[in-house]
TrEMBL record:
GO terms for biological process: proteolysis. One of its GO terms (molecular function) is serine-type endopeptidase activity. It is a multi-pass membrane protein. The chain crosses the membrane at residues 16-34, 46-63, 75-99, 111-129, 135-154, 161-182, 197-216. Residues 239-261 are annotated as: Disordered. It comes from Rhizobium leguminosarum. This is Rhomboid family intramembrane serine protease. Keywords: Cell inner membrane, Cell membrane, Hydrolase, Membrane, Protease, Transmembrane, Transmembrane helix. SUPFAM superfamilies: Rhomboid-like (SSF144091). It comes from the Bacteria. It is found in: Membrane. One of its GO terms (cellular component) is membrane. Residues 73-218 form the Peptidase S54 rhomboid domain.
Length: 261
């Protein structure tokens, strides 16, 4: 439907999104290592680290020698394995554009917990819908779906540049493309639950992300952009200039050159 390119949304509480960058680096590193393996070894990695519902729910057992981590850990490890470049790139672009502001709203440690819980929720939802499936689930889309849900609850009005249908770049309020994307996940789950894409993992991540942002965000961080929060560096600069003007009730409001707010 669209590819996010950039959001005009500065960080307010952290200087660098270290966890987001580390997650991207780890996903790329795992993909590179897997790409260097032989086809047989890469398939073994996918089976050993992927989440397999039939094994998780006791309907099958993994062949001896294929287990890389204990089965409960596959609720997390599957999210760091990708089957191809575009599979990796799609997830990492979403994480790059939206992860920094969600991390900013939570802090580093809580964002890491948030990401991993969303990944596990995606796997669990996928498993509950396909309990007897022996196909391994891989990819970060469950966790990234949680990031998208949290972002749209935090910053629905932020302008996001998106590439629509891989051709047309447009600046849109975040809620327009992201709510359409979220709706697509539920719609596809309803009409194609057994397709090659695990819509169930996406939906599980979305539900987890929407709930966790309520409890893991920093105290005082608003939802739905209900107030404009000026970056600390601007608030503390007495010479910030006419771009920031006092608003009603002691809040700050953006003054535009043409007099609109």
């Amino acid at each position: 439907m669209f590819i996010p390119l950039h959001d005009a949304n500065t960080l307010k509480h952290i200087k660098v999104q270290w966890v987001t960058l580390a997650l991207i680096a780890l996903n790329i590193a795992v993909w590179l290592l897997t790409s260097l393996e032989s086809e047989q070894a890469a398939q073994a990695t996918t089976v050993g680290l992927g989440y397999i519902p039939a094994i998780a729910f006791g309907h099958a057992m993994l062949a001896q020698g294929l287990e890389i981590v204990p089965e409960p850990l596959t609720y997390l490890t599957y999210a760091f394995v990708h089957t191809g470049f575009w599979h990796l790139a799609g997830n990492m672009i979403f994480l790059w554009v939206f992860g920094d502001n969600v991390e900013d709203a939570m802090g580093h440690l809580r964002f890491l917990i948030f990401y991993l819980v969303c990944a596990a929720a995606g796997a669990l939802c996928h498993g509950l819908l396909t309990m007897t499936s022996e196909a391994p689930l891989v990819g970060a889309s469950g966790a990234v779906s949680g990031v998208v849900a949290a972002y749209v609850m935090l910053h629905p009005r932020v302008r996001v540049w998106v590439l629509v249908f891989f051709r047309v770049p447009l600046p849109l309020p975040a809620f327009v493309p992201l709510l359409l994307w979220i709706g697509q996940q539920f719609f596809m789950l309803a009409i194609a639950p057994d397709g090659d894409v695990s819509w169930g993992a996406h939906v599980g991540g979305i539900l987890a992300g929407a709930f966790l942002i309520l409890v893991l965000r920093r105290p005082g961080v608003p939802l739905f952009d209900r107030q404009i929060v000026t970056p600390r560096a601007v608030r503390n600069d007495p010479g910030a200039g006419p771009a920031i003007a006092a608003g009603t009730g002691g809040r700050t409001a953006q003054r535009f050159p043409w007099g609109r707010r």
